[in-house]
Amino acid sequence: MRMSWAGTYIEFRPACSEKRMKGRHTMQSAYAAFGDKAARLYEVSSRTNRGSWDTKFAVTAFDIQASALMNQPPAKVQKAA
Asked: Which residues are paired to 8 by β-bridges?
């Protein structure tokens, strides 16, 4: 898609596809590093002091994981995982 602003054409597609690719790499890195526990919360009971992984996808957990792994090469993350 091209848009004109004051006679200057701006191409939007490359930026969108670049963001999409970065998002895909970040998601792959999160799953490579955390496996089936990616985007899951670990909750500890104060009564028993035992914990377990939540089964639901947690956006907050994924935000933290993604921000830590963003702009990291997927091969480097997979090697370290």
From this structure: 5
